[in-house]
Amino acid sequence: MKKLLLLSTLLIFACSSEDSNDDIEINLIELIKGKVYHKEIPNGVRYVHFDLSYLGEDLISERYEGWTYYEKHNNDPNQLGCFLDYSISSIDYGLYLRWYTDTIINNPQQFKLDGIYNQTWIVTKDDNDIISIKTGGDASIDDGYTEISSEEFMQLDCL
Q1: Residue partners of 126: CB distance under 8 A and separation at least 6
Q2: What values do phi and psi take at 20, rounded to 5?
Q3: What is the β-pairing status of strands 140-148 and 110-114?
Q4: Could you tell me the residue ranges of all domains in the chain?
Q5: Residue 49: Cβ-neighbour burial (10 angstroms; 0-12, 13-18, 19+)
Q6: What is the spatial distance between Cα 141 and Cα 137, in angstroms, rounded to a whole number?
Q7: Degrees, nearest 5: CA angle 147-141-26
Q8: What value does the CA radius of gyration of the chain take, rounded to a whole number of Å?
Q9: pLDDT in tens, 82-100
């Protein structure tokens, strides 16, 4: 009986230990895929829906779908609600893990996607789970995004 109890304990410990390592090893693309983040802007709220679907690998590199920006202007009585602002999409930019650079960034804290017209986007998640998006071409950083639930986003009727 003692051997059975010890074996069960070791099995539980091994499984729980393996699960915690899996969380650490997941890359940021997989972690935020399908999620929505938001931040306050002067006129209301901006939302970013990260599609990040894997589109396959071709002769160049692995290719991903991008993300879409929505806004809801709270202070404008004529505004009809949440609306599409713009998107960073694979159709428009390519969005490869590696295009014109030799550097692939794809880890739990950040990923980089290269566009076919020499653009670069680096998405970073800090220790407080805040997302930042740096656009390489103009070196601007769009930061301060926190996650919201899919249900809350769906209630906005943005999609």
Answers
A1: 109, 132
A2: -70, -35
A3: unpaired
A4: 27-155
A5: buried
A6: 11
A7: 45
A8: 20
A9: 899 999 999 999 999 988 7
